[in-house]
Amino acid sequence: MAFVQGGGGDFSMGDEDGGLEQSNAAEKALHQLEMRYTALKDSLAPHKVWRWAGTGVCFLIYAVRVYYIQGWYIVTYALGIYYLNLMIAFLSPLVDPSEQSELPTSEQDAAEFKPFVRRLPEFKCWHSVTRGLFFAFAATFFSVFNIPVFWPILVLYFFALLIMTLRRQIEHMMKHKYVPFSFGKPQFKGKPDS
């Protein structure tokens, strides 16, 4: 097989006998859909408050649906566990301080400002939260996901997991002296222009 340039400037794989293979129409449509989705995500990136507000409204719609259909509690529990994992990734640093082998060699190195870099950035966190919500919402339309469970036990188990996980995360923050939030921290400004 050899690469051959088609009439539209596209490169496609050619057979040994010189015939060109046509691109699949479904692949082109999927590629265009992916490009539109990426453009939509890029246009939403600067609007943090509106993104989270829209996701909050969608979550309220999901909660009302689950309340009125009186089922799909296991889907909601799985969504809660997924959100807990996202929250831990959002609150964790990219490089775990306990695994960092470099120690400061001088006082100047120790005083160097190192910004907090998250393992899961805010935009990716929002995207994952919203995507998980839409999958959970879609799952409520299929009876195969309506597994009968005693929902108060799921609620208690979820809160037990939440408390244990947050306690471990807060201990890790205190041990390694990092704060994953920027509010309340001093902000340094450069010299005023003269």
From TrEMBL:
It is a multi-pass membrane protein. Signal peptide: none annotated. The keyword Nuclease does not apply. It comes from the Eukaryota. One of its GO terms (biological process) is protein retention in ER lumen. One of its GO terms (cellular component) is Golgi membrane. The chain crosses the membrane at residues 49-68, 75-95, 133-166. Keywords: Membrane, Transmembrane, Transmembrane helix. InterPro entries: Rer1. The keyword Transmembrane applies. It is found in: Membrane. Involved in the retrieval of endoplasmic reticulum membrane proteins from the early Golgi compartment. Belongs to the RER1 family. PANTHER family: PROTEIN RER1. This is Protein RER1. It comes from Hemiselmis andersenii. The lineage of its organism: Eukaryota, Cryptophyceae, Cryptomonadales, Hemiselmidaceae, Hemiselmis.
